[in-house]
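Just curious: can you write whichever protein you like plus the matching structure tokens?

***
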Amino acid sequence: MIKIGTALFEATEQLEREKGISKEVIIDSLCDALVAAYKKHIKVKEAPNVEAILDETTGEIGVFRTKLVVENVEDENLEISLEDAKEIDDEVELEDEVKIEVTPENFGRIAAQAAKQVITQRIREAERNLVLAEFMDKKGTLTTGIIQRVENRNVFVNIGKTDAILPFREQIPGEYYKPGNRIRVFVLNVKETNRMPQVIVSHAHSEIVRELFELEVPEIEDGIVEIKSIAREAGFRTKLAVHSNDPEIDSVGACIGPRGSRIQTIVGELKNEKIDIVRWSEDPVEYIVNALSPARIISVDILADDENAHEALVVVPDDQLSLAIGREGQNVRLAHKLTNWKIDIKSASQAEQAEAARNYEEPAEQPPVEEEIDLPQEDEADEDNKIEEEYGIDEEDVINEIPESETGESSDEE
């Protein structure tokens, strides 16, 4: 047996307090380390019947091999004769198992080195598992940390047992992240790695706004007021659609608070980011009108409302067009994200012009119609007179020149 004293137990208790690693885990790791060192010492890869046993009362640890008591020994590594077993334990019988200490001499230094390596590895694994379990539970929630450093546009934030990464894409545009400052972030994802788990956080996620409102507005936390939808462009503007499950409580007023106290706290946390709180409605027309606030709306025409598309045409006064669209289209873009409706905005004059264009229809080209022209009919007498005048022919002359045979009259009749 190797005497290790009480120092190991004191160290395990300290690790349990500081790192949250249980004493049993460290002791099991030490026993595994001794077994591994023993296998290496005797130059074998497998020794299933070998184990390390720690006596906490005496502070001694040793390596033992379990053998089966038999009459005729065939494998000395697995079996022991009854006679030899009686020397260890007088009460042992055939088919019993006995533990035989096989701790090599001068094994203390080798065991200590192996134990140090394995224990260090197990401590890292235990820490990694603790961090993984803790932040897996925190995934999708808000947490507070301290900015440590900025490297390659990534911000490293200490959030307790590990440093989280705030990627550039999850940062608020234009914000300066100074080391040492406290910051509230949203736990976006937790990735397992060979070393410590990698925690990804966000400072621009829309769920940060939800969490802040849940912290500041008791009605939301109690479920009286419900946040239906959030559309955010971090650092600039956020639109929030809320609904009250109690008709006596104003959802918008509850979020704003007395004299704007609640909303001011949240705006301050978000570095003066503008927040529009609108009432949610089942009626898409009313919902779209609310979402486009503060612009005044003349009319909303639903163009499509089915599973494949949600489209609406919104008409606003001419002087409200720029306000409805917003700077670089921000207002209508946030309204689209908030309502999940495709919104086309036109001024009143543009709508009138479009309506006039739809009402104007050019005449279609008709195929030419052949009309029957009625020419004036001339009497046969007039026609005969024209012929006589044109050719100088008299009717009597024509008759006189006709032979008698052609006239149909015979000379006998004369």
